[in-house]
Write a structure and sequence with these properties.
It is a single chain. It contains 28 helices and 14 strands. It is of the alpha/beta class. The protein folds into four domains: 170 residues, no CATH class; 80 residues, no CATH class; 129 residues, no CATH class; 238 residues, Rossmann fold, CATH 3.40.50. The strands form three sheets. Strands 3-14-13-12-11-10-7-6-5-4 form a ten-stranded mixed sheet, with helices on both faces. Strand 10, helix 19 and strand 11 form a beta-alpha-beta unit. Helix 1 packs antiparallel against helix 3 and helix 17 crosses helix 19. The radius of gyration is 32 Å and the shape is elongated.
Length: 753
Amino acid sequence: MPGVTLLGRRWQAASDDFVLPSSLDAIIRATWLTLICYVIYRLYPSWDCLSREAGELEGDGIWGGRNAVRAFLALCSVLLLTQVVTAVLLAGESSKGGVMDVQARRFVTPLLTFRVFLALLDALWNAVGTAWIFGGHWPRCESESLATSIIEGLLVFQWVSLGALMLGLLYIYDPMGLEEKRWERTRRQWHLQTSSGEAGGVAGEEEGAWRDGGEKGPLEWEEADREIERKWHELSSATWRKRFRTLLCCSWVGDFHGSREAFKDVSELFSSLLRGTRLVPSDLAAGLILLRIREKRERMLRRRAGEEVADEVRCIPNASPPPLDATLALTPDAKDQRPPEWMKLDARVARYLRFAQGAYGWPYLMYLHCITGICRLMPKTVCCVCLRRSKARKVDDDNCCLCGMAALKVITKTAEEDVLYASFQNGYYQAPFVVLLDHKTNAVVIAIRGSITVRDIFTDFCAASTDFCCPDLPPGSAAHKGMLQTARFVKERVEESGALKRAFDSYPHYNLVVTGHSLGAGVSVLLAMLMRATYPDLRCYSFSPPAGLLTREAARFTERFVLSIGLGHDLVMRLGVDTIENLRTRLLDTLYKCALPKYRIILSGVIYTFMGIPSKALRDAVWKLDQETEDKMTAEKTVMEAIPGKHIPFPCLYGPPISPEASVLDRDIGKRRFSNQRLYSPGRILHLMYKKRSKEEKISGRMSPRFEAFWRQPEHFLQLEMMPRMVLDHLPENVLAAVNDILLHHEHGGETP
């Protein structure tokens, strides 16, 4: 970090990324050099077998004879030796200093330039050798077939290594590398002119590129910097859009309008998050490993200090949550702050989670039952429905055998006549959902599918806050843009189908329940808010909802009809634009303070994955710079330029309100905000946690519940945590297992049945 400069542009590889590749390259080429030396040793004593008859030699010209073989082998050995020495020097230079100590690795760029020159020579000589040997001009000896095979193998290896080099260059190619260098030069020129008090703008081409037409006066430093950031943001967003359209060409052709809007929103988000950080992929890997160590150390210190979570209230199954705080009343007549009786951890939670699982369709069924899934699915399918439209009037956009519908019936154990309507239409801002009857709980259930396709992921990342208005909602409320548009789509399709009208005509005493998992959880909350005016007794069960869904007052509004359930260190429950931006700032801060070289961090991370983090790794002295070294690096201009925004206080907090455009274009990474409003998790939050066994339980061997439940506030989920199970805890089958475990042990008095 930052990306290395080579051939006049910046690349997506840092100067400390070449330790392991160069070491591996040196070992492999040293092996081939040893084999070539063996060939020379075998052929050197006589070289007689390399001579041909006079007529053959005359016909072959320069291709035949012992002199040509000597020259070829000599140059091959010299090239290999030079490449081995260069690789060793490059690995040694790349291993110097910490992640941010760029000055310690100042010789990496010249070595890389020389290595590229060697690669060109290697390609040229390899082409000559290939044409000579595989073209039939090589003077073969029957007694030295091994030597010939070694030389042919070397040529094949050289072509493979050149191909790998080209793929590596494509991987680390940065489309904005050239523009970034030019803008940095422009910024420095303007800054020098402003500091020295010189009049006039930037001369030459860069003056015309950044001045408004016809303006002759000097540009102020702040205006010039903001103009550069605006141009950079536009180019970065356009670059991300091109990447999305290239990689997802099959995903956006059929939904051009929706994909264009989604690509625009997500590309602007990525530009805001990554622009100017100069982070390369290996920096992200090393930073996440360091954050994992840092967070574990902080938890250890809190545990030793006896600190407890302030908002922690234990949940008892089948018992209502604690009363709402009277200060959270949203209307003058809201005097009763008791939560609804249904809002508790009971068997209905597990049942509605099953419906949320069923909305995922046949891919999820095959995931749950990799071997027997097809056997479970086949009896529920209907062949050639596309030829019999009357059989599929209540199902939209399923496949010809209604596999999605079949999986829904298998997972939820729902009869076909109880499925009122199912839509499997999936696009940008469009989510599949089902409307069905649950006679066991006397409810009409709308279950919305979570993220499973690329289009769903784009809906997740369209995370900017947008104004949200509905009856009784506090003024100035905002919601997740992508999920709000998806909720409006679901509401429109439900109304068009008439499923709810038919259901309540037949069962007027039933309640309306909206549920979903992940993306479906966020959409279900917003759908419930949109439909609550029509169905005031509506209930919403939200499983693993995203953190960045609603503004704080809007989230308080949902505490009367939304129950959110999440497990452990679920990534999505802590995932929002604000938490990602804070993670970015924490990652930069941690990388800056790290004293270890990057290759040691990554190798340690691989070991920690299988062996766990040792206690000695939790000491600051192992990975953190001492104060004297940190002050010295701060004073160096090269390092200061390498870490824009590093001087921002940690953790990053919101400052005085500024315009959304100014927030996105802020050069100071710690202050840059894509969304001008912080979004929170919805409803009353029931957090399921892993329970550690006590010493008495371990000694006695008595099995105790594996999980325990707590009522949390949305502020508990404002920081992303780097934990091993942060992805596994999001999976719906693991959430269901935790719910069933708590209910089962509560039913048997806290003991294993």
